[in-house]
């Protein structure tokens, strides 16, 4: 059982001992820490926080604990109930709220839950803000409201519909073109809130939605991370239903993957590539993804005359680089689309609408679209190191070894070779180096990873 406290929030497994798992006591403590930070940071008379959750079995319990802790601090709550991460992000500025909390462990299995913390813009907190909240929690530096000053909870279940309207009104979402295409799409909502939001969006866009695992009961029918090995059912159903393609989201709907018309994975990395291809064709500009994302986005960006930038891994880092470089679209290779014309957060509803518009305008199949993009394949491996080994020093040696290549040390060590790249990142919790590689064939990507593992062992003397 696990409790992970980080600058991006708190997540852990339900049950067990306090301080070792995400127990009710831990949920209250970190909600109070967030409230204390909010009141100190904003220094106002009244405070409002938007709270929503995915469909996890523990979600209702954790949400009640979090909301009523904030009420006890005199903070008013807008309760979205079952919602999505991007919907809460959109709701915070629409409500002129001071912040937001999403109760979700994203792609983790059902025994996990988490508090994801937002600022007044509906964006994830930065490292400095997150560190302050951890300090409040460690010191239990909380002041609660007197009885006449308690906060109030206001329920509002309209925000998924409001979010959908916001998506439909985006300039680059062509509702008429999508309706005219008469798409048929299978949706795997992994029995969470994507099963509410995505079919409802498709209906508004005139798309026939075939539902698979769209009952929001939190009983995940397969591992909720949208990877190929977990998606056999929808791959088969797309073919059986003669659908145009399939849509898969994770439990909180910020990661988006597609299945093509032949029942094959479109590839999480290519979700962002396809959406960027469409956006860049309509709006000239730059793109951003993290250092572990596919080179295909760089290729597509250059094709459209833009410039590509790589950030450190993590959504908050991608967002900051997008702002710095005035990117028109960006995201992460795990299927996370960030489109600033909507908001600075990964959003599967926005990604779905952009992808549908792109497909409708091109009038080709999803498999044909994938074939039009540069073919890249990734390998993701790790190497266990000896406890006590200085991993930072080892990574410095690896950077020096490849100094004649294109090397980035923004986040670990990334080496860009002419026909492939390697990204080495250390784990913060165990003596492991994660090794990501990409090349033009799967065999080459795997071989590059194996060769790099051998090199690391040689340099480390293990």
UniProtKB/TrEMBL annotation:
Q: Specify the Alpha-D-phosphohexomutase C-terminal domain's residue ranges.
A: 396-453
Q: What class of enzyme is it?
A: isomerase
Report whether Phosphoprotein shows up as a keyword of the record. Answer: yes
Task: Name what cofactor the protein needs.
Answer: Mg(2+)
Gene3D superfamilies according to UniProt: Alpha-D-Glucose-1,6-Bisphosphate, subunit A, domain 3 (3.40.120.10), Alpha-D-phosphohexomutase, C-terminal domain (3.30.310.50)
List the EC numbers from the record. Answer: 5.4.2.10
Sequence ranges assigned to domain Alpha-D-phosphohexomutase alpha/beta/alpha in this UniProt record = 8-142, 171-263, 270-375
- GO MF annotations, alphabetized: phosphoglucosamine mutase activity
Q: Please provide the record's keywords in A-Z order.
A: Isomerase, Magnesium, Metal-binding, Phosphoprotein
Tell me the superkingdom of the source. Bacteria
Q: Into which family does the record put it?
A: Belongs to the phosphohexose mutase family.
Put simply, this protein is called Phosphoglucosamine mutase
The source organism is Dokdonia genika
Taxonomically, what lineage is the organism?
A: Bacteria, Pseudomonadati, Bacteroidota, Flavobacteriia, Flavobacteriales
**Gene behind this chain?**
glmM
